[in-house]
Fold this sequence. Notes:
ten-stranded mixed beta sheet; Spore Coat Polysaccharide Biosynthesis Protein SpsA, Chain A
Amino acid sequence: MPTHADDSRPTPRRDDAPSPGLPAISSEGDAPPPGVPAPDAPPAEVVALAEERAAARAARDWPTADGLRARIEAAGWAIVDDGLAYRLARAHPPTVDVAGRRRYGRSADVPSRLEAAPVGLASVVLVATRWPDDVRRALSSLTEHAPDGTQLVIVGDDPTPEQEAALLAIDAIDPGGPGLATEVVFTAGRLGMAAALNAGIRRAAAAVVIVMDGSVELVGDAVRPVVTALEDPDVAVAGAWGLVSTDLRHFTEIEAGEAAAIEGYWLAFRRADYVARGPLDEGFRFYRNLDVWWSLVLRDEGEGRPPRRAVALRLPLHRHEHRGWTELPDPERDRLSKRNFYRVIRRFGRRRDLAVGPPAP
């Protein structure tokens, strides 16, 4: 979820938006006989949402289109745009029980605590796929420095065998006693960053949720400062390492101060805001720029109304190598980053009211 602000960002052309007109569902393969449903035919309610989304896209109503996509994906279907057409396909593997452990095929299948009264100080959510040593380091630092009342939810998103073994060992004990209550959620297949975070956030017990990246290590209490910052109702999102921008296309990292967005290394928000404004758009399978999108969603109060604030704080955190970035070939990470950035631009590209420039020298 972190955004690498030192890399250039694409500026989409205005003419890459879809033209008006309703797209139709594209088909693949032979149609079934009349009266016989296709084995993977989407239910009528999903088709209706897809048609409604097509109309929103034709009207260039991107917030509505994004919300409808989230509802379609929450129902277990993926919508793939192809020019003026779209295709619906099953979006996730089934939820299954393996060796007495539930593995979830979609985020919506994870039992939710979001309607229960909040308990504890903060819930930290971390996604683990590979690199078990990074997760051990993050867990060890949380165990040492997180205050009592901190919950940790780790989502094993189709982890490697080495990572899974490490997560099973973590899940078998309560490593922090009263200071850190830990649970692990496993997926049945790779869901992607946004869906995996949605799965973890559904298990969040506290009123404040902190998204943590596995490359981060606590060297002090970084929990209480963000919880305190969110006591201000004007603050929508807080954390370490902010991003400023005058046009929402080019971003610069700051260590502290007013920001347009907070990077996903350590990003905190209210659980109630997630309920009201979420879930995360599960089209963000790659992590990059999801933090920008979610920060803007949290800050946005609607055009014509002052947005809420994003506040970057100097916190006792250390960033290590971000392997999800450094171990990808340059062309692949550029392709995935651009795809995600276009999702940000399509929803917020014209919302200059959400821009926050760099602080005065």
